[in-house]
Recover the amino acids of this structure.
């Protein structure tokens, strides 16, 4: 076991879904779509002929832990906070095969792929009236890449290949890379890369972004009533003329699933993620009034085992837990069939292990009786012939996941009562590793092996809550990351998956499909992959 990796992904690290957007691609790679770079600022892409006005009503399960984009990984805050900020660049909300400018007017990549220059829009102001300059970009990206002492950056490894950031003038930013890094452009476009005000943070302290929202975005903070709602309102001085179309966005905090669904049915809520059964019910009962969007999501149900505590420091115990869980049973009972088995790379990925290979991994085979017999044998070998007692720490909203896993573990002698926590305390417990077993619903803004592994499975990865650090995993990660040929990289990812998944850094139960229902008067919303990349709402309007 060794410390965190010293090198990041190399050129060719993003092949999936056409996100390879750097012009300096090697000849071995397939043609890739180029980013859209309009020469002038125009109203933001949407569908139809937009009307202005109205407040979009949404719902979520619980209160956000805080407002900081850099340290968080939950929709409870991102799907409202990001709309108050801008990125340098963003995914086109109607076609996430394409990347379009945001604060940057345009960008250029050097021939060797090691320097990326962004030209910024001029005349932009933050909500407090302070001018936006290249200094704010440098400050924000430096923070994400190397946060100050005591701060957390969940996506720090996404920017690890950046050697330094230069600001020749107020409207130019140069990123100098250690190596060509194809993933850089999509990494910067994901919905966590909002730019903070350098002067604002320096004046108010490093924790200010947890307490306030203050960006350059199309919306600004209006009101937060804990346990009730969060509301943002249109920024009347927004720099991108013609948007936003909405007067505001209001997210109601509704803990009970049935109550959230009822709020959608009555029109109190305009757009809501649903499970498979509720989606079918709405289509049958309200198909003339409500649309259902479906697709393969970059979200999954998982179990984290704290390997810094007994007995989960023992790989045999972790494997026993994995062997005990009936994954197809979970998909059928909890996801109502709207999920798929997969490893650390989702089954929809071009790099996913074939099913016949996946089923060879411990816990993924079809004979669950044999798996559980093997699990009990492993527990005996580890010194727990009668099982043991432990505890579940469960974030609000993961109730069904936790109850299912709790029942599965009882079948091999593991007894674990459940303690429920709101999002804030649950995230604190996860980061501080103050738990034994932590069921969780994860999501990721980017679907690429580099993004998955760097954020979740490498040594000291920001969202590796297990505490596992394995040097061979690190080495296999770098092997696939440095492969320029897509087929060579695919084989390397398969080798990585076959080694990494049985370590049980996380136990994957299901990769979950999404189903989003919205009233037909909601226009311009197109869910793709994960809502992290569409929750700025600039493209949304209400046809009523």
């Amino acid at each position: 076991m060794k410390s965190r990796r010293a090198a990041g992904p190399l050129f060719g690290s993003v092949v999936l879904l056409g996100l390879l957007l750097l012009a300096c691609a090697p000849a071995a790679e397939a043609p890739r779509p180029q980013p859209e770079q309009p020469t002038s600022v125009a109203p933001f892409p949407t569908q139809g002929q937009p009307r202005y006005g109205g407040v979009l009503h949404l719902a979520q399960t619980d209160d956000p832990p805080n407002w900081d984009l850099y340290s968080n990984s939950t929709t409870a805050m991102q799907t409202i906070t990001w709309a108050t900020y801008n990125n340098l660049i963003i995914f086109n909300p109607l076609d996430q095969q394409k990347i379009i400018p945001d604060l940057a007017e345009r960008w250029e990549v050097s021939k060797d792929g090691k320097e990326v220059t962004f030209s910024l829009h001029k005349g932009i102001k933050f909500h407090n009236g302070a001018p936006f300059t290249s200094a704010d970009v440098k400050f924000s990206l430096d923070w994400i890449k190397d946060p100050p002492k005591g701060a957390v950056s969940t996506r720090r490894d996404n920017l690890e290949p950046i050697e330094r950031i230069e600001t020749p003038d107020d409207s130019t930013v140069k990123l100098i890379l250690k190596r060509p890094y194809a993933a850089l452009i999509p990494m910067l476009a994901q919905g966590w890369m909002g730019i903070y005000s350098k002067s604002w943070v320096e004046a108010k302290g490093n924790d200010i972004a947890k307490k306030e929202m203050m960006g350059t975005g199309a919306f600004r903070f209006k009101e937060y009533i804990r346990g009730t709602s969060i509301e943002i309102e249109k920024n009347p001085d927004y720099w991108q003329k013609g948007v936003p179309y909405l007067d505001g966005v209001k997210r109601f905090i509704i803990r009970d699933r049935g109550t959230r669904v009822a709020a959608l049915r009555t029109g109190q809520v305009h757009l809501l993620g649903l499970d498979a059964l509720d989606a079918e019910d709405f289509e049958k009962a309200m198909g003339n009034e409500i649309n259902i969007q479906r697709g393969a999501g970059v979200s999954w149900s998982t179990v984290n085992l704290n390997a810094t505590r007994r007995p989960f420091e023992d790989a045999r115990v972790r494997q026993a837990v994995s062997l005990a869980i009936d994954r197809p049973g979970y998909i059928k009972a909890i996801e109502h069939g709207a999920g798929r088995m997969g490893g650390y790379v989702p089954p929809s990925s071009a790099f996913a292990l074939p099913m016949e290979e996946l089923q060879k991994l411990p816990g993924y085979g079809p004979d669950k009786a044999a798996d559980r017999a093997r699990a009990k044998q492993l527990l005996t070998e580890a010194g727990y012939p009668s099982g043991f007692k432990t505890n579940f720490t469960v974030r609000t909203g993961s109730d069904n996941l936790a109850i299912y896993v709790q029942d599965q573990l009882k079948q091999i002698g593991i007894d674990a009562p459940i303690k429920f926590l709101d999002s804030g305390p649950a995230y604190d417990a996860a980061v501080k590793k103050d738990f034994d077993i932590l069921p969780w619903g994860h999501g990721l803004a980017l679907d690429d092996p580099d993004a998955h592994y760097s954020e979740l499975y490498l040594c000291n990865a920001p969202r590796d809550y297990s505490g596992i650090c394995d040097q061979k995993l690190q080495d296999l990660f770098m092997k696939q990351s440095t492969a320029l040929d897509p087929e060579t990289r695919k084989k390397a990812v398969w080798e990585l998956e076959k080694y990494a998944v049985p370590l049980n850094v996380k136990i994957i139960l299901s990769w979950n499909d999404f189903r989003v229902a919205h009233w037909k008067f909601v226009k311009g919303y197109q869910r793709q992959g994960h809502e992290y990349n569409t929750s700025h709402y600039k493209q949304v309007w209400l046809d009523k």
